[in-house]
Automatic annotation (TrEMBL):
Protein name: Ribonucleoside-triphosphate reductase
Biological source species: Methanocalculus chunghsingensis
MF terms in GO: ribonucleoside-diphosphate reductase activity, thioredoxin disulfide as acceptor; ribonucleoside-triphosphate reductase (thioredoxin) activity
GO cellular component, one term: anaerobic ribonucleoside-triphosphate reductase complex
Domain of life: Archaea
GO terms for biological process, alphabetical: 2'-deoxyribonucleotide biosynthetic process
Length: 154
């Protein structure tokens, strides 16, 4: 297995147990957000092994924490574990969308005429976008959908 570039900018040897531990730790949020139980060790081990097998099958020569997480989240979705995927996913924005924010054409570019086109505004808009994404993921999916469609308002 190739070395892994971590989200903290380090290179580490591949270690499947890191995926297992992340699943166990992060899925505890399912209890907080949705009132359901987090993953058991057996499930975490099975998902981590499947992720490792997929990486081997893909023949990847480069690995990063975010890439591994994408594969893990797809595996969780394929297993029907949407709640687990929701708490394990990264919140953020694609590079293209971040670029559009930087050049004044992206997220909420027309929402506040009081903001100036500068690095601070780009940073604020990126933070706002990430926060919105996080908050929606913390809601049960049915409630998030109602919020987005405005159907839950009285």
């Amino acid at each position: 297995m190739p070395k892994v570039r971590t989200s903290f900018g380090h290179m580490m040897d591949w270690d499947r147990t890191k995926i297992e531990n992340q699943i166990l730790q992060e899925t505890r949020l399912v209890q907080t957000f949705y009132g359901r139980e987090g993953a058991e060790r057996e499930l975490a081990e099975r998902i981590a092994l499947e992720v490792e097998n997929r990486i081997k099958k893909l023949g990847l020569t480069f690995l990063s924490g975010p890439l591994i997480r994408e594969i893990m989240n797809m595996t969780l979705l394929e297993e029907g574990l949407v709640d687990y995927r929701n708490v394990c996913t990264r919140v953020g924005t694609p590079v293209f969308d971040a670029h559009l924010i930087d050049v004044g054409r992206g997220f909420e570019s027309k929402d506040n005429s009081n903001l100036q086109e500068n690095a601070e505004t780009s940073h604020k808009k990126k933070a706002d976008k990430i926060s919105k994404e996080q908050y929606l993921l913390q809601l049960p999916p049915e409630l998030a959908d109602l919020h987005l469609t405005g159907e839950g308002e009285s």
